[in-house]
Amino acid sequence: MPANMLPTVFLPHGAGPCFFMDWSPPDSWNRMADWLRGLVGQVGVAPKAIVVVSAHWEASDFTVNTQAAPGLLFDYSGFPEHTYRLSWPAPGSPALARRIRSLLAASGFESAADDRRGLDHGVFIPMKLAFPHADIPVVQLSLRRGLDPAEHLAMGRALAPLREEGVLIIGSGMSYHNMQRFRRDNAQVDADSERFDAWLAETIASPGDEREQRLVHWAEAPGARESHPREEHLLPLHVVAGAAAGDSGLKVFEDRVLGSVQSAYVFGASEGGGDAI
């Protein structure tokens, strides 16, 4: 991997504004928050710009936020009032948005521009921890309705040149996301979550072609649909895996929260960054 090429990252973004409010038990999200605060160390270098694909934006075409100063979209409900007054005033980058659309077009993808939508909580909640100074330009890119895994892998491949341009590509989701099975008590972790997490770790560590084939057919994995009744929280992983091309992938973080296993992955980490667990 060229020395100037950034890795790609899949991170768990937690539950709503969980890192910025009281929770029971009170330490539920501490390990994940600490890991997010150390993200630059996992990457190994501060990026010039960031592209985030969040589980919380789906559009008919891959859509790019083109605003120079995007606001925040508080797309959660039922949380304390102060969590709707959080701020994270990172700049956007219309130039990077144009570059993304050019790369998508070169790979045969239709895309669209959005100059109104704020950054959703899949972006600003984890980024507020990882990049608290909000001084690096951020562009959000949507998933595409239909949620086809092969298509999202291919979209990620289209974005790969950004890695040599100082751009960090982040997929923000959850490695397990079954709202019906989440529980406050972590005394017993969902066995399907453990099975799927083991398969996912093995898959990400596989060689590039094998990894992509396994991700295309992810729904056949043990515990897959029990872990993701709907795949929107998983597909940001496909995007960053596609952008990684043949670079190796590592599981770099694991937590047990809400009765589930939650993991993070880094692809193409340089020496000294992205320590496997």
Automatic annotation (TrEMBL):
Cofactor dependence: Zn(2+)
Keywords recorded for this protein, A-Z: Dioxygenase, Metal-binding, Oxidoreductase, Zinc
Entry keyword Lipid metabolism: no
GO molecular function annotation: ferrous iron binding; oxidoreductase activity, acting on single donors with incorporation of molecular oxygen, incorporation of two atoms of oxygen; zinc ion binding
Source species, domain of life: Bacteria
Domain Extradiol ring-cleavage dioxygenase class III enzyme subunit B: 42-249
InterPro entries: Extradiol_dOase_DODA, Xdiol_dOase_suB
Family: Belongs to the DODA-type extradiol aromatic ring-opening dioxygenase family.
Name recorded for this polypeptide: Aromatic ring-opening dioxygenase, catalytic subunit, LigB family
